[in-house]
Amino acid sequence: MRNILVAYATNSGTTVEVATAIAEELGRDGSQVDVRKLEDVTAVEPYSAVVIGAPMIVGWHRAAVNFVKKHQQALSRVPVAYFITAMSLTQTNPHSTGVVPIYVDPGFVKPPKNANRLSLKERYTAVSNYASQPLKAAPLVKPVSIGIFGGKLELYRLKFLQVLFVLLMFRAQMGSLHNWPVIRQWATQVSPLLADKPRS
Ligand SMILES: Cc1cc2nc3c(=O)[nH]c(=O)nc-3n(C[C@H](O)[C@H](O)[C@H](O)COP(=O)(O)O)c2cc1C
Question: Going by CA atoms, what residue is nearest to atom 29 of ligand 1?
Fold first, then answer.
């Protein structure tokens, strides 16, 4: 029986909802699935496959970056999938991260205003920029997929400086962009890939 870890980092507490939905789908075939906060995971070796997810918090959440760096040798020996939650996403060339398949919520991703001249924000929020972050942090790990989904932003969950940042600098929209059918569909598609050996 498969023994899958779904580990997540979070800033304001909402990415656990995404991790839990993914775990539910992965467990439909009877697989044992553990949902854990990354900070509580000491080893990945007990697991036959690992899913790691985290929000963009001016870069992929620092705890996720540190985790994949620290465990990259072990993660390179099992099938791994990454997911990213965010509030803004700009469509760019889907092949720009090479061989790793990227799955984006089609209702969440937006085209740039001018494809020939991306703004600073569009370059930062580009699919290719977001997807490259876990890959750069742990180049030995070749994930079977990277899912990028709309997240959730609620002012009352944030620290004062974070409120200023998201409102003034990032101009993010408030509310939930969680798209459960899309998130669950990704998990269903990824599920059989997590049974295979990792790609070399
Ligand atoms: C301080 C801060 C920085 C953020 N930075 C980004 C970002 O760089 N790009 C983005 O698309 N969303 C950004 N977001 C939005 C979060 O990624 C989104 O709200 C996510 O769902 C939060 O997940 P969490 O509740 O698990 O922390 C930011 C939110 C905060 C509070």
Answer: 57
